[in-house]
What does this fold into?
Amino acid sequence: MGVDLICQEPKVCSFDCVYCQLGKTDRKTTIREQFVDTEVVRNELDRVLSITEIDSLTFSGMGEPTLANNLAEIVNYIKETYPVKTAILTNSSLLGDNDILEALYGVDSVVAKLDACNQASFKKINRPLKGLLFEEMLDNIKRFKYNYHGKLALQIMFINDNEPFVKQIVKIAYEIDPDEIQINTPLRPCGVMPLSKERIAAICQEFRGFKNVISVYTSNKPEVSAIDLEEVRKRKRPEP
Ligand code: SF4
It folds into this structure.
């Protein structure tokens, strides 16, 4: 089940990725705030978890979830109250913030985005907030991996712009040494064409030295059902 601590439109993010399925980022920021009252989140979790059997909760949604400054509070509440695993999808841009690190150390699985291999490709693909530096983000991911005891997955979205840099990205991935590599390409409408199955298969070959590599085309998708269809429609445009 997804938990969205931002829960507002337009999305709030430190990036404006060319492939974002949520559309353009109008509020590009690294300033954290409380988007949804902690008490409201707790009550909603209690309500849903009392009527639905959930094995894991994933923080994601309308932007970058680490921008929510009540993340740690919510993570702690879940850990103390429910026997469920937690995961978070992050764009990796705020891993230098100690409060965010403390929150993430309490999450069982962190899926960190890394689509670029240098500042130029970072700017072209992720279009980060001015001042965000690729090398700094990379150092923060490596430091996080060193200190973190949960499962770190590196999620890489491959499109035409970064396909030529696959070898450089593989080299960087070795330096990070994640527990899992997730190879993606945008399959939902977003103005950027996805790479074909064959091209993604060739990219996966480049990552063959890693123990766990999963690809968007071949991974087993768990069966899911919507708790609130209207909310799901807001976040996911239909596949073609
Ligand atoms: S980091 Fe995620 S939410 Fe933010 S712009 Fe990129 S894809 Fe969209």
In short: Helices lie at 38-51, 71-81, 98-105, 119-126, 134-147, 166-176, 197-206, 229-235.
